[in-house]
From TrEMBL:
Classification via InterPro entries: P-loop_NTPase (IPR027417), PhoH (IPR003714), PhoH2-like (IPR051451), PIN-like_dom_sf (IPR029060), PIN_dom (IPR002716)
Organism superkingdom: Bacteria
Protein name: PhoH-like ATPase
Residues passing through the membrane, by range: none
Naturally occurring in which organism (per UniProt): Brevibacillus fulvus
Coiled coil (residue ranges): none
Keywords: ATP-binding, Nucleotide-binding
Amino acid sequence: MKKIYVLDTNVLLQDPLAIFSFEDNEIIIPAVVLEEIDSKKRYMDEIGRNARRVARLLDGLRELGQLHEGVLLETGGTFRVELNHSSVLTLQKQFLEVTSDNRILAVALNLQEEEKMAAAPRPVILVSKDALMRVKADSLGLKAEDFLSDRVVHEYSSIYPGYEKRIVASDIIQNYYAQRKLTLAENFPKVKFYPHQFLVLKDECNPSVSALGKVDGDGRVLEMLVNDDDPIWGIKARNVQQRMAAELLLREDIPLVTMTGKAGTGKTLLALAAGLYQIEDMQRYKKLLVARPIVPLGKDIGYLPGEKEEKLRPWMQPIYDNLDYLFNTKRPGDLEKILAGMGSIQVEALTYIRGRSIPGQFIIIDEAQNLTKHEVKTILTRVGDGSKIVLMGDPEQIDHPYLDESNNGLTYVVEMFKEQRLAGHVKLEKGERSILAQLAADLL
């Protein structure tokens, strides 16, 4: 049975091509949605770009016919801008204020009432990214759904972790240590492994005996880690996932590394240490570029005085805190002198990365969970020849209004690149900042 989908504004602002995601059903946009999109088109951020893209898309659809009468989409469904059914009388007992949200609800509710009178009534479904909008719809007896087509995974718990634990026979571990590699097809038939995936092998007879290895770029052979367990720029891996991360960060043949994990798991510190080691000691890269999106936690602090570096300092303070630790500075101002003397470290806001080409650099993008798919594509396409880029963040801590743990840019890259030999990923599990920080991450 065909359905009628009424789209909320936030669905189109999240994915301008959302109208093509509903197969052969009827897609309806209330007129008030056009008003809301029009109010966003002047924004100079991702929301504004998507609003302008929606406007161009709808303008192109006019060539197919009158939008208020409905046009046929390439997916087999129909699209219509609803000018009628906007009376809010059906809502006034429950929601008195005539807001844009209530006007969208009124259109969906009135369409549902009309369909009940038809010979073959079709279900009317409101699609919204706003949880409270879906709750209000449900209280009115209107079916509501989240827009899930933009998700690469339906649940964050199912995201690719980058490693796997396997219980194996004792002789498999013995052969692995003796030959320093393991043919996966012979020992794990019919099991698919991803390039640069880590395996933790546990002896079935003696769980205290284990082995750690990394799948090669072709996904066929389990190999010993190339980099030993020595400290990197004074930082030593404290757990097995940090050893995995260090391996990926130090491998020149893996230009894209993604790391996820809760606060305090060591993502930023490990990445900075690996970058400094390869720039200053190995001279593998020319410069270390560290950037993060400017998204405030809580109420914004407004405009800041001073030059660009002074304006960025509050946003980039977490990076400077880690650099203070790595350089073991004692007095205020010491870090600035060190960075000025080195000249190989650049701390930047992602706002300034568009249009650049960045060759021969070690690039760290912190808090990448606050990036959209479009923004993360923009960043990755800036990476020049001979560069390595590290994307990291905690998908469970998102400050972007239209993103969640399953549809953000970081999760998107992890899932889309897991089968590529140029990329490696690891999820850090154990917090190493302090016992209190780990307990807070688990309980709160």
